[in-house]
Amino acid sequence: MNTQPLAYRMRPEKIEEVVGQQHLIGPGKIIWRMVQAHRLSSMILYGAPGAGKTSIASAIAGSTDLSFRILNAATDGKKELQEVAEEGKMSGSVVLLLDEIHRLDKTKQDFLLPHLESGRIILIGATTENPYLSVTPAIRSRCQIFQVQPLSKDDIKKAVDRALSDKKRGLGNYNVKLDPDAENQLATATDGDLRSSLNGLELAVLSTKPVGDKKEIHITLPIIEETIQRKSMSGDKNGDAHYDVISAFQKSIRGSDADAGIYYLGRILEAGDLAIAARRLLVIAYEDIGLANPNAAAHAVQAVTAALQLGLPEARIPLANAVIELALSPKSNSAYMAINQAMEKIESSSTGDVPIHLKNTRNWGKSKDEQIDYLYPHDFPNDWVAQQYLPDKIKNQQFFQAKGNSKFEQGLFDTYKRLKESQRKGLKQ
């Protein structure tokens, strides 16, 4: 009997077997092109647990017939790295998946660097942390950095179906009947974590007694709820209730119905989705309440931090405080609309170059007469001076439009209009 977990056994052997992450491994995309051209470079993959970092590394190695090794930066030492380096020296190159790369210490980093330079080790670092903040510059500068996205419900269903049919590595030798609502629970309740979904499926299959002449293993919703320790938000057949409840949660708070907000929070927490509740509350605080009550957004951050430290069931208390305050706060999505309009402008047209005086260095190519110096606002009365900041093509663009639902936001907008008018007059002089 194979004692390796299902998620381990089902790791893709070719790039085509990876589910999700099509922005990286889809035909014509960057990692796909690396593999096709046999021109691999070291990289760092960062994203949520179970989103496919190890799968991508495994698939790269399998698609290129290179040796593949897995180490952990926190627990494996220089000795294990030396063994990988020796293997790379003998075979030409070895793909090393280094998990938790943000925990790489200086001794191990110093050992790795020359091997990365020589190409003996093709490093694929994996981390759930932001590498721009957590990985040392020496390693970061030698790696391409790619973000992996959370897997969708359909991605996880595809992987589950593959595991059920695969007789060599999966559960294909078992006669498994997986109910649609049970599969939906696997695909939604693990919050994009494929590893948890596959291992929960395997536990369900191995712990359920076969029945009948065909030795059928019937996996129902209650069995999946028990194996992954999360209740379904609803017994619906298409899995939409998971997202319906989350949608209703935000819309109730946006609509200032504190009772409904508390009710839907309870539904989400009863399903064990603390992370979803916390993340959604932060979105609501900044998208729907925003500048109308910035203190409520700060309180929401504090509540979420406390909830994640406490864990369930106590986490419900600070989250309930946040829900009631957000629901009963004045609302404004002006900042949300402003950034959306700015992004749309950037995507739909050429907005022009950064003004010369705002660039990091002076434009030494121009004559002294043409030289435009940056005006340091703190050198002027009231720490302000009329100066152009937007590119020429959109210099008169205005993205911020206040809703005026609170004195605080209206005050910001009044200041915004006053400064815009002073800037316009000052630049005309």
Automatic annotation (TrEMBL):
Positions of the AAA+ ATPase domain: 39-151
Domain of life of the source: Bacteria
SMART domains for this protein: AAA
Family annotation (InterPro entries): AAA+_ATPase (IPR003593), AAA_assoc_2 (IPR032423), AAA_ATPase_RarA/MGS1/WRNIP1 (IPR051314), ATPase_AAA_core (IPR003959), DNA_pol3_clamp-load_cplx_C (IPR008921), MgsA_C (IPR021886), P-loop_NTPase (IPR027417)
CDD domains per record: AAA, HLD_clamp_RarA
SUPFAM superfamilies listed in its UniProt record: P-loop containing nucleoside triphosphate hydrolases (SSF52540), post-AAA+ oligomerization domain-like (SSF48019)
Keywords: ATP-binding, Nucleotide-binding
An individual GO BP term: DNA synthesis involved in DNA repair
Gene Ontology MF annotations: ATP binding; ATP hydrolysis activity; DNA binding; enzyme activator activity; single-stranded DNA helicase activity
The keyword Repressor is assigned to this record: no
Keyword Transmembrane appears in the UniProt entry: no
Pfam families attached to this UniProt entry: AAA, AAA_assoc_2, MgsA_C
Similarity section: Belongs to the AAA ATPase family. RarA/MGS1/WRNIP1 subfamily.
Protein name per its UniProtKB record: Replication-associated recombination protein A
Organism: Oenococcus kitaharae DSM 17330
